[in-house]
Amino acid sequence: MASPVPISRPNGLRDRLTIPVLAFGGILMAVMQTVVVPLLPDLPRLTGSSPGAVSWMVTATLLSGAVLTPVLGRAGDMYGKRRVLTAALALMTVGSVMCALSSDITVLIAARALQGAAASVVPLSISILRDELPPERRGSAVALMSSTVGIGAALGLPLAALVIQYADWHTMFWLTSALGATGVAAVWWAVKESPVREPGRFDALGALGLAAGLVCLLLGVSQGGQWGWGSPRITGLFAGALVVLALWWWHQLRSPRPLVDLRLAVRPRVGLSHVAALLTGFAFYANSLVTAQLVQAPKSTGYGLQLSIVATGLCLLPGGVTMLLLSPVSARISAARGPRITLALGAAVIACGYAVRIVDSRDLWMIILGATVVATGTTLAYSALPTLILRAVPAGQTASANGVNVLMRTIGQAVSSAAVAAVLVHHSSPVAGTPVPTLHGYLRAFAMAGAVALVACAAALSIPGEAASGATREARGESRSDRDQTPAGT
């Protein structure tokens, strides 16, 4: 366990910019993941490739992000969080430059896989904030960092749509390349290297096993609708994932320095937080998926508004602004009532948002209202999850533990995408010769996501409360002197 260092208060411009710079990195990561979405319908023509090949520009980022998030989180705990954070942002920027320079689909897919490394930015940044900030500033900073995922996603879609509408599509990637380079330089200049580390030998075998198991699992989930859920490829992928992850679990329990400390992960406070993260990720992601499709549906469907990509992005923008404004509120609720109550409240608000969507999904203002309510609940839930993890794990494992929590959100989002697609395909009717989801299908998707949110609420309420005993503090790796000498650099 690393030794604590004396608290130092903000001193100078660099210290004061640490939180804004880390938040900028989180927003930039979410923007990078989102900007490709408006391009997907036109990329087959622009790259001379098939729609199936183009879909891999999203799948590759999902897979690499899921694999690299826990791996880079563990590397950050061992070798230095700022160092690994800078490397992740640099890989993201290199991927953006590759996209800007090429129209070859193979190069574009490889570049998007590189950009998946940026999924580790948020857990690494949260771990830095835990190490560097005094307790009175930590809650609001972690809440803001958690909200950057939604803020960046809400900003990325209209930004990309505007650039694509008025300029060559490569310009969008040149713009993100410049932003990425700025982020790398800002982190290197403003963020101090955390003194808290957990040295040891990196579990390369564990990393390879986790990578193989997650690739099989998420590839099967993401491609099941296209390849057929009962096809030999999909059943083989799921069977392979089950076998590989079982062997990986066995290896992690016997490794002296595991990639993921499973004994810690299965403790109720940590394990139930991961379950809640998976369920919340499912519930949150359905909002973006369904809203974008619904408002762009043709007016001939009887419910569609036939909005442009730019207008669609603007519909989601109020949710991003709400996430930015409410992050301090969520921190105050966690400080007063505890993060598990904030998480349960957030999940309940998400369910209320979907209830609004079920009541009325024809009027634009009601659609925006419902989407914003879901975003409000997501802010509360996502800000509480890392706080729960930080309070339940030793200081030397915060990056890897938060990386696993983000991984669970990613798996939830992947399952949500597949489930929503299956519901909408099942409830479709032809419009001008093209199958289009019915309004009933959208309402079914809302009901499914709302039900999952209620299950997430129940999971949150099942998380044991934080005991004030010395044994609990010892499990978190904190002694009395640790609490009195919390590492701080900002």
Please bin the fraction of helical residues: over 70%
Discrete helix count? 19
Give the class from helix and strand content and strand pairing.
mainly alpha
The radius of gyration over CA amounts to 22 Å
Q: Average pLDDT, to the nearest integer?
A: 86
By DSSP, the count of extended strands is 2
**What is the ordering of alpha helices and beta strands?**
HHHHHHHHHHHHHHHHEEHHH
Strand content: under 5%
Report low-confidence residues grouped into runs of 5 or more: 1-8, 468-490
Record the strand order, biggest sheet: 1-2
What distance lies between the first and last C-alpha atoms, to the nearest angstrom?
Answer: 22 Å
Largest sheet: 2 strands, antiparallel
Please tell me what the overall shape is. Answer: globular
